[in-house]
Amino acid sequence: MATPSRALIFFFLCMPAILAKANVLEDIYPNPCKCCKENETRLHMYLHQFPHLPGVPNRNEYTMVSSSEPIGFGTMIVHDWILTTGLSATENVVGRLQGFHLQAGQTTTSWYTVHTIVFRNGSFAGSTLEVSGITEVKPNGQWSVTGGTAAFASAHGTIKFTNSASSTATDAIKELDIHVFHTPETAA
Questions:
Q1: d(Cα 73, Cα 84) in Å, to the nearest integer?
Q2: Is 10 helix (H, G, I), strand (E, B) or coil?
Q3: What is the pLDDT along the chain (188 residues), one digit of tens a residue?
Q4: 141: closest CA among 171, 115, 174, 169?
Q5: What residue range is the signal peptide (predicted)?
């Protein structure tokens, strides 16, 4: 009859103690990544900007700093734009885009835009998205989503925007294609 090797004896005698110690360590140093699966959300909405220009009723932006530079370099405008699910600025209002835009280009019109999308109505009411990026005088562009709260906790993604053909001199409409990844908050 063969004698068990020392390694085999060690394995059977010591392994339970090692495994027990591993469970103790798990209690002391818990796995920090007990994460929920990340969700993906796509939304198609409309931004309504009533510019701070003479003759524009119901303006939803105001010039805070004005510049005499040739293209307005350094001008800062605070905005509270409207977010809707349809082309009308008065129907299906789901939130606001609150923040500012700053003319950051010295040789071209290039607005640095920072705002929080605050959802007030609809399925995302009470949630926010943090957004920033450059808005140039082009028919389209893109902003970064850098955070969020509630339904959009830990959000990241992009917002592609296009100047709408339905825009007027008093309602500059942008179509927004919002694409965000977010992690739902878990109960403690």
A1: 31
A2: helix
A3: 566 666 666 666 666 666 555 555 455 555 555 556 899 999 999 999 999 888 888 899 999 999 988 889 999 999 999 999 999 999 899 999 999 999 999 999 999 999 999 999 999 999 999 999 999 888 899 999 999 999 999 999 999 999 999 999 899 999 999 999 999 776 65
A4: 174
A5: 1-22
Question: Based on the number of CB atoms within 10 Å of its own CB, is 44 exposed (0-12), middle (13-18) or buried (19 or more)?
Answer: exposed
**Which bin fits 165, alpha (ψ -120 to 50), beta or left (φ > 0)?**
alpha
CA distances from 51 to 35, 36, 64, 81, 85 (A): 43, 42, 13, 10, 20
Instruction: Give the start-to-end residue ranges of the domains of the chain.
Output: 39-182
- CA nearest 160: which of 182, 186, 128, 138? 138
CB-CB contact of 122 with 150 (8 Å): no
Torsional sign, CA 36, 116, 48, 68: negative
- The rounded distance, in Å, linking the Cα atoms of 70 and 168 is 25
Q: What are the DSSP calls for 107-162, one per residue?
A: SS-EEEEEEEEEE-SSTTTT-EEEEEEEEESSSEEEEEEEEEEGGGTT-EEEEEEE
Please state the pTM of the whole predicted model. 0.78
